[in-house]
Amino acid sequence: MDIALVYLLLIGFGILVYVLLDGFSLGVGILSPLLQNSENKGIAMKSLSHIWDSNQTWLVFGGVVLFVAFPAAYAFVLSNLYLPIILMLVALIFRGVAFEFRFKSDRSRGWWDLSFSLGSIIATFCQGLILGALVGDMSSDKTLADPVDWLTPFSITTGFALVSGYGLLGACWLVRKTEASLQQVAKTLALKLLFLMLTFFAVVSIWMLLEQPTIAERWLVFPDSLVLLPLPLLSIFFAYRLGSLLRNSEEPGLKPLAYAMGLFMTAFGGLVAGVFPYIIPGRLTIWQGIAPDKSVYFTLVGILIFVPVILAYNIYAYRTFSGKTSLKDGY
Amino acid sequence: MMDLFTTLPDTAILSRIQFAFTISYHIIFPTITIGLSLYLAYMEGMWLKTQNLVYLQQVKFWMKPFAITFGMGVVSGVVLSYEFGTNFSKFSEIVGPVLAPLLAYEVLTAFFLEAGFLGIMLFGWNRVSPKMHFAATCTVAIGTVCSSFWILAANSWMHTPAGYEIINGQFQVTSWLEVIFNPSFPYRLVHMLLATAISASLLFAGVNAYYLLKGLHTDFAKVGFSVAMMAILILAPVQILVGDFHGLNVAQHQPVKLAAMEGLWKTEKGAALRLFAIPDQKNETNHFEISIPKMASLLITHDMEGVIPGLDQVEARDRPQVAVVFFAFRIMLALGGLMLLLGITGAVARYKKRLFDFKPLLYLSVSMIPAGVIATLAGWYVVEVGRQPWLVQGLVRTVDVISPLPAEAVAFTLGLFVVVYCSLFFTYLYFMRKLILKGPPSLDEIQAALLNPNMTEGDDLPATLNPAQVDVGYGQELANLLSDKTNKGEK
Q1: Residues of chain A with pLDDT under 70
Q2: CB B415 within 8 A of CB A88
Q3: CA A283 to CA A289: how far, in whole Å?
Q4: Which of A236, B375, B400, B435 could form a disulfide with B335 if both were Cys (CB 3.0 to 4.6 A apart)?
Q5: What is the nearest CA distance from A80 to chain B, expressed in angstroms?
Q6: Angle CA B451–A41–A118, to nearest 5
Q7: Is B163 touching A (CB cutoff 8 A)?
C-alpha cells in the first residue's frame, strides 16, 4: 500500500481521536460557565482530572506525525497560521493548569473556573478557525500569513461550529458522568447544543459546496456522490437517535456520547473525502509532501507497535475510573 | 504604535528569544519531576516492602508538589512541540526527516505513558490494587526517563550530527543507530539525568531541612533528609566526573564552544585556566582576567604543554556570544562545587551523629533548593549558546531557517508568553509554598484514610455528592493488611 496514503490515514486517525477525546474534554470547559454553581463546576472538572492529559496528548501525536510524514505541510501550516496556533497553545496552558490549581485553592477557585472555561473556549475556537482557514482558502494560492487571510467570515463560522460541537460532546460526557440535577442540566444543554451544532454544520457544509468547486465536484457529481451518500444519511440517523435519547431516556449512559461522536465522525469523513488527496487543502498533495522513506518507515514501526499498546492502557485507565464521578478520588 | 514597530528587532532575534525563553521555562519542571518521580517510586516501593506508614506519608506528601510541577511541564511542553514549525519552519522542513521521528518516538513511548498512568497514580488510590498503583508510579518514572532519552538524542544530534546525508538541501537518514547514538548523546543523557536526580534531591533536602529547622514534622523530615543527603553525597561527585567527560567530548567535537567556555581567544600552548574574566567580543580579548597558568591545558589535554585551539580558529561570524557561554559555565561549576560541599558536610554530620541538628548544614540545604535547577539551566545555556551561530553544528545556520513572520506578530506572542509564563510561575511558587507550609498528612490521618477510603483527607464537598464507590481497590486491601500491622506502622 502507498505509504503516503497510510500516513494520511494515520494522521486522520490521530486527529479524529483527538477531536473525539479532547473534544468532550474541551467541551466540558466550554459548558462550565453554564453549570450554575461552584460544586457542579467542581464535579464536571473532576470527571476529567485523570484523563485530560492523555486526551490532549493526541494533539501532540497528530502534530508530530504530520511533522514526520509531511514536514513541508507541518512547516507551512504552523508558520502561516502562526497567531491562531500560538493563541490556541496559550489557551490550552490556562486550561491545563486549572486542573492542578483549582482543587488546591481556597479563595481563587472562581478564577480557575474562569481560566478553565475561557481557555477551553479560545482553544476550541482557534482550532475551528485553523480548520476554516485551511479549507476555506483551497482555491487561492496566496499565503495565509496575513490575518485577513485566516480571519474570514467562513473561518469564524467554523470556529463557532466547533465550539458548539465540542460543547455537545462535553454535555454528553457529563450526562454519563454525573447524576441528579447536574445530569438534568447536562441533558438540557446537550439538546440545545445538538440543534446549534446541526445548524452550524449544515451552514458550513453548504458554504463549502457553494464556494469550493473541488469539494462540490466530489460531493455532487455521480458516482462519487453515491459513494458518499451514506455519510449525510448516517449523520441524520445519529442526530435523530441522540435527540430522542436525550428527551426520553432516564439514564442513557454512554450512548449519547457515542452518537455525538458518530456525528463528528461522519462530518470528519465528509471533510476528508472533500479535500482528498491534499494534505494542505488546494496546495500540496500527500504524494508531493511525503517525507523520505527512511524516516516514514522507521516511524511506522513505532506507531504500529505502540499505538495499540497506548489504546490498551488508555482503555484500562478509562475503565479504572468508570462510573459516576466521585469527588473522593484525590491525592 | 508605528514607532514601536519600526524600532522592533528583526524576526530572527525575536523568534530566537521566544524559543530560548519558552524552552528554558519548560526545562525547569522536568528537571524536578524526573528526579522526583524516581523518589516517589522508591518511597512507594519501600512502603509496599516494609508496610511502614512513614514511607506512605512521604509518597502522599510529595505527590502533590509532583503533580503541579508535572502539570506545568506538560502545558509548557506542548508549546515546544509546535514551536519548531511556527517559528523555524525552514528548519522543520529540511531537518524534519531526522528529528521528527525521534520526537514521534518520544510521544509514543513517553508522553502517552506518563499521561496514561499519571491519572492512576494521582487519583487511583482507592480504585486499583497497591501493586497496580506501585506499577503506575514506576511507569510514570520510566516514562519521564524515556522522554529524556529521545529528546536528548534529538538535541545531541544537532551538536554532533551523524548518520545523515544531504539530498537537495534536505537531510536524510543513512543510519538511525548513528543518528540516535551520535557522539555527544551518551554524555549528555547521563549528565542530564544526574542533574534531574540532584535537583530533586536538593528540593527534597531543602524542604526537609526547613521542617527540621522549624521543628515541624520532625519524624517525617528525618526520613527524607537522610535519603536526600545520601543521594547528594553519591551523585554530586559522579556528576562532576561525568561533566568532565562531557567537556572532553566538547573539546573533541565542538572546539569553538570549548574555547568560548574557557574564554580562550587565541590558540594557546599550555593554556591558562581563567577563573574570572570579562570577555570582550569586539576586541577579542578578556578584561580583569584571573587565571591559573597551564591549568586549562592540563585539564583538557592532560598535558601541561598541550595546545588548545582558541576562538581564532574560526572567523568572527562563526563564534558564539562568548560572555554568555563563559559565565554560564562558571555558574554551573560553582554550583556543582557547592553541591559537592553540601554532600560532604552531610556525610561528616552523619558520621558525628548530628545530621538532623547541625544548623549550618540545614541552612545550606534550604538555600540550595533552587541550585540544581539553576545549574541545569546554566548548563543548557553553555550548550545551546555555545553552538551558535549554528542550529545544526557546522551545517545549518540559525538565521537561515527562521519562519518569514512579521516581526510584530512574534513580538506580540513573545510578550504574551512572558506575561503568561511569569504570572504562572508566581502562581506555581505560591502553591508550592502553600503545600510545603501545610506539611504532610499525619500518620493518624493516613491510617484513618486507609481504613476508611471514603474519608479522603482534604475533602471539601458534601458526602451526599459522593455516590457509593466500589471499594475493592487499595483501601480495602490495605485495611485488611493493616488490621494486624497497626503497631508496626506507628514506630
Answers
A1: 1, 138-148, 326-331
A2: no
A3: 10
A4: B375
A5: 8
A6: 135
A7: no
